[in-house]
């Protein structure tokens, strides 16, 4: 699905991605992990064409993305920080995004899943952080695209909403989709991921299953396996 070769990205003198290679499977949930500032969002934004790398190639379904921006209509994206006009109501925002994308949308089903009905007429400025995140999840999941990219989807969610999100992501996987996800909640990542991709020093340091990661680090639990990579590498 996504094939990345020799990706380099610098911001000024800061080398964030330094010859990164990654190939994702056709179907499944891939967690992109790494310490703060390791380049997870930069990688995601490079796939989306929002960050332009200095070197390297990204292909989606075998096609180079550069200068062929229409590939983006087949990606659903949840940004880490979504900045929508705060004076819009939830209903107005959903309608605006539907008008822009011009695709069939299943907003009602998702509003019901995240129990957002009481908030539909409220302005975004007046919503709690968790409710805003649920609105962002509705916007992201309503278009049924084959590739879903979720940058910190768990932010601000209570435990019940986390369970709903997990089921939603798993249902999308069952439909044959590829889901790339970043999250700092390790229990969530462990439960949901088919593969773990760990970024360190601008490259993929580890790419494998949770079980393989535990074995490679000689740790029985996932959080300790991740901590082991970080302490071994002084990250
Ligand atoms: N537009 C930009 N201009 C300058 N520096 C940037 C820009 N975007 C990101 N960076 C820097 O690149 C590095 C990687 O940032 P990035 O957001 O990709 O990390 P991350 O792994 O997603 O971090 P976190 O876990 O904290 O979300 C950071 O040092 C960040 O400050």
UniProtKB/TrEMBL annotation:
Name this polypeptide is given: Cu-processing system ATP-binding protein
Classification via InterPro entries: AAA+_ATPase, ABC_transporter-like_ATP-bd, ABC_transporter_ATP-binding, P-loop_NTPase
CDD domains named in the record: ABC_DR_subfamily_A (cd03230)
Domain ABC transporter stretches: 2-226
Listed PROSITE patterns: ABC_TRANSPORTER_2
Transmembrane segment boundaries: none
Family, per entry: Belongs to the ABC transporter superfamily.
Origin species: Salegentibacter echinorum
Pfam families in the record: ABC_tran
A GO MF label: ATP hydrolysis activity
Phylogenetic lineage: Bacteria, Pseudomonadati, Bacteroidota, Flavobacteriia, Flavobacteriales
Keyword list, A-Z: ATP-binding, Nodulation, Nucleotide-binding, Transport
């Amino acid at each position: 699905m996504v094939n990345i070769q020799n990706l380099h990205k610098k911001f000024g003198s800061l080398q964030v991605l330094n010859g990164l290679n990654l190939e994702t499977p056709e179907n499944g949930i891939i967690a992109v992990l790494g310490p703060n500032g390791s380049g997870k969002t930069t990688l995601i934004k490079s796939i989306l064409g929002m960050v332009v790398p200095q070197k390297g190639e990204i292909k989606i379904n075998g096609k180079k993305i550069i200068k062929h921006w229409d590939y983006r209509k087949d990606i659903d994206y949840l940004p880490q920080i979504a900045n929508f006009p705060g004076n819009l109501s939830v209903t107005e925002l959903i309608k605006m995004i539907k008008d822009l994308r011009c695709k069939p949308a299943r907003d009602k089903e998702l509003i019901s899943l995240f129990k957002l009905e009481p908030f539909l007429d409220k302005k975004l400025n007046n919503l709690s952080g968790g409710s805003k995140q649920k609105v962002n999840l509705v916007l992201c999941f309503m278009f049924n695209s084959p590739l879903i990219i979720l940058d910190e989807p768990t932010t601000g969610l209570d435990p019940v909403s986390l369970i709903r999100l997990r089921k939603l992501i798993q249902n999308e996987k069952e439909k044959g989709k590829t889901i790339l996800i970043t999250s700092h909640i390790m229990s969530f990542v462990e439960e949901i991921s088919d593969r773990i991709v760990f970024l360190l020093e601008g490259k993929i340091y580890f790419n494998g299953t949770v079980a393989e990661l535990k074995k490679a680090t000689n740790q029985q639990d996932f959080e300790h396996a991740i901590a082991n990579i970080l302490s071994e590498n002084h990250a």
